[in-house]
Each structure stands twice: as structure tokens, then as C-alpha cells.
TrEMBL record:
Name of protein: 3-dehydroshikimate dehydratase
Keyword check for Translocase: no
Species of the source: Priestia iocasae
Keywords of this entry: Lyase
InterPro entries named in the record: IolE/XylAMocC-like, Xyl_isomerase-like_sf, Xyl_isomerase-like_TIM-brl
Amino acid sequence: MNLSICTISFRHHLHSIDHLADWAQSNGFTGIELWGIHAKHLADEPSYNAQWLQSYGLQVSMLSDYFPLEASSLELTNAVQTLSSLGHRWGTKKLRTFAGQKASAATSKEERAYLVKQLRLVCELIHEQGQYVLVETHPNTLTDTLPSTLQLLEEVNHPALRVNFDVLHMWESGADPIEAFQVLQPFISHFHFKNITSRDQLNVFAPQNVYAAAGSREGMVPLFEGAVDYHSFLSIVAPLIDVDASLEWFGPNVKEVLASDCKKTTELVRELTVSAC
């Protein structure tokens, strides 16, 4: 299993990319999921790139951004070209986005058709660059349920379209994460792992809360201490595929939690892999 830290976890911390790379290397991670805005802010520092990160034994596993699918095709094209160029700089083929900004059930046929058209445009542009666009399973998007995610994949119907499978959010939708994985497996290129104490606290992951420095972190817990059963999930997933996953932690004590979760996840996957042989 290839585990990454997310630079978004350190969005309210005063840490340099050098510090994060050194820390990730020292704590068992193999990659960094670079938040789009962080990649853009590093664009004027040419010494930071894939080769530099490789000196730490790390790679950028994915660039995570938010393509403006609701905007004009020109604005969208410019955004895609910018992130695609950054993807080449950091040596990653995976560019993550959200499929819109509205729940699938609340999206009209006309709105959905426009988002599908825009997403297909993204795929065509990205495909020319040998890259992939990953739509994240996430509330209040067209991938907020398993049926809508499958429908979107069929509607766009492009080889560049892949899935970033957020286990907690798939569970939040009411689907069984293992069953959803089995259905979506041919399209999955990355995973997000995080956990919560109970369903009634899921609102802490709402963007307006989770991105706010003063937002609530109540209910956020380490990976193996929450309501989502990661032991069972990994017991099915880990032996089947070479997993690229990011530990997406938004709570306090970032380094302590991430280091512990990385160690526990790595040890579990090693045990599962040995037992499967």
C-alpha cells in the first residue's frame, strides 16, 4: 500500500514543503497529495518539483483541486491547463476534482447535462496530456451516491475519467463501502481514508466548517477508532489491488495522528497480504 499525507491537513500550520517532505519520509509515507492551491503557490519556486521530491524517496500521488465545471468552457479550459501543467511538474498523472457543487438529487436534468459536457471536456484535455481526472465520492456533488456515480461514469464515458474513492463519504451515502468498492473497482485510482465517531457528527466535514480555522473538529477520530470499519474494508481491498491512498486528517495533533495511522495501516496491510498468500 502506498500511503500519502495530504498537504491540506497542514492548511492552518506554518510548515514549509521541505519540512513536510522530511517528516513524511521519516514516518513511513511514500507520497504527498498536494492541494491545488499549495501547488499554485509553489509555482514561482522552480527548485520544487518531482525530482526534488524524489530525493526524499517520495512522489506526488495526486494533485487535488476543484475544476469550475459550472463556469464557461474557456474558464474551465484555462483552469485545467494550469493544473495539468502543475501535474507534469510534480510528476503525477492524477488530478482530483469534485463533480459539481450540488447534491445529485437536487440537480436538474439540464444542470446535469451541462456538468457532464464540461467534465467530458476536462477528460479530453487531460487525456491529451496522458493524465486522468479523478472525481471524488463526496456529498453535494454528482458522486454523492453509488448510483449517481455509476451514472456519471456512463454519461461521460471517457477513459480519462477515474474515481477517488472516499470511504467515509461512500459510507455516509448509505452504501456499504465494500460493496461499493467491488462495483467501482475498475474505475478507482485513489482512496481517501478518514473516520468519524458517529453519523450525527458528519457535518464537521462540510467544506464551510472543515476549511475554517475556527471550525469544529468534534467527532474526528483516528482511522481505526471510528464508525467506519477500516479493518474489514482493508481486509477485502488490500489483497486485491495495489492501493494508493491518502490519510485525510482534518483534526488536531496532525503529526501524531497521521504517524500512528500510517503505522497501524501499514502493519495491518502487511498482515493481510501475508495471510492471503
